[in-house]
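In this supplementary section we document a worked example of the pipeline. Step one takes a protein sequence of length 551 as its only input; no multiple sequence alignment statistics are reported here. Step two produces a three-dimensional model, which step three serialises into structure tokens for compact storage. The input and output of this example are shown verbatim.
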Amino acid sequence: MLGEGLCLLDDLGWVPVVVGGTVREVPLREALLEAHAFEALSVELPTMAPAVLRQVLLPVVLDALGPLDAGQWAELMAAGAFTPGQREAIGRYLDKRRDRFRVFDEEAPFGQVAGLAHPGGAVKPVSVLMPHVATGNNTPLRDGRSTADPVPLPVGAAVRWMLHTQCWDTAAIKTGAVGDPAVKAGKTSGNHTGLLGRLGVVTLLGRTLFETIVLNLPQGERASGDVPQWDRVPQQPAWTVRAADGVLDLFTWQGRRIRLIPEETPDGVRVKWVVLSAGDRLAALPEDEPHTCWTLKEDKAKGSLRYPRRHLPGRAGWRGLEALLTIERNTAGFETSRLLMQTATASLMGDLPPDYPLRVATCGTVYGNKDSIVADVLADELPLPVAALRADLTVRESVVRVCEQAETLARALDRLVAHLARAVGGEPVPPGKGQPPGTKLLYVLDPLVRRFLAGCQRNPDPGELDRAHRAFEQMAERATRAAADELLQRLPGSAFTGRTVEEKNGATKTTRIYRQADAERIFHGTVRKTLTYLYPTEPVAVATVVEESTA
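The serialised model returned by step three reads:
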């Protein structure tokens, strides 16, 4: 028989936290009641942190303490820890639901379906829950272990990967479950990815795990009938298509039906095999989903449309900073997350100091082959000045401008390279092929941008802000011109004389001359135009074509 302590999330060490620079796995109760003593979560993949927060930590706190208004939220942040009364409320909540947090319960195992089975009793290796480990035909080159002999996971790790699967699992066909009427030929098709896989997830980070929890608690009234998955009727193999009842339902959404299969081993209880099948499908993503920014579009037929703003591969988090800071709806075609709007309001009301060291963690998943495999995991973390969330402050304008300047300098370098390629008789590298010099420059500028953002967290006065911005421009100019000089030194002599190219645009033929001198002039003119602190009187426009005639 499995020991009760290994079956209960309230007793089992499964939440990995950082304390004093070391990692410990603590039970659910300790993770919450002592959250002020822990620095952060420490998980296997960046995408696991929002899964643990949303699937367990946030809904327990939100359900135990009840709906929060702005004043109660501010009191929590100011206290820095749960009060004795709140600790007692959370403790009573966990005591009352003790049986629903039992991992291997015979009737209602936590986050699972009791007795879930595939036809013929087939099981899958636990690696099916882990996108970075070999499973099926997806076998990493250096992975010497086959799916017939999966790595056994401790119970705590298996629980974390189960939560991760609920949020991020791939789409496509799933093996059918016995008792699911939607199964055809032993399979279920038309599955969506996990809920978070459709978002560009934005999580707010504080100085402690407690502050991180509070920063990610949505304020507002609770919808009627909104309860977390552990307060619902125990799951069955059959699944439904429905709308979320509210934020607690959304956070604990069961996008898959899962059963962990425990084994007694000399090292204790381990999980080597699982049953995984289709789960509930969300009819529509709620507009108040708190952990994503939004893209806004106008459609003549459909009116105003709103889409989750996905993160793009190869892009640092600060390259989408304007979307994070866009508090006003319908500005620039995007809108920030609900939680960042809350934070901005708290700052305006004086409930959050303008020099609070807020950080933002962005993560997402890139799927491939019709969303049936995980191709890449995207993650970044950056300092976000609270003052920049307030549109009435100059900090916002300055941080957005710095990010724009870095991008503009990278594009200028790429255009220089394209011009020079034509000057020596070649053609520019097509978009998406290779690594453009501008991308390499962005890697060099990245720490400069982050240093500027971190400095702005101190809420500098206008004079300090101007000096910091000028210093950024000086270092950015040095890096950009050095990258250009390195390219120019490798040019053959033919670049000086250049090349005449006849280009067609429909019925019109245009003759253009590409040569090194023109490429350099355009590049340096763009640099001067971009760095407005260093070159405040630079002319507005720079000619891009120096000699042309129409035939």
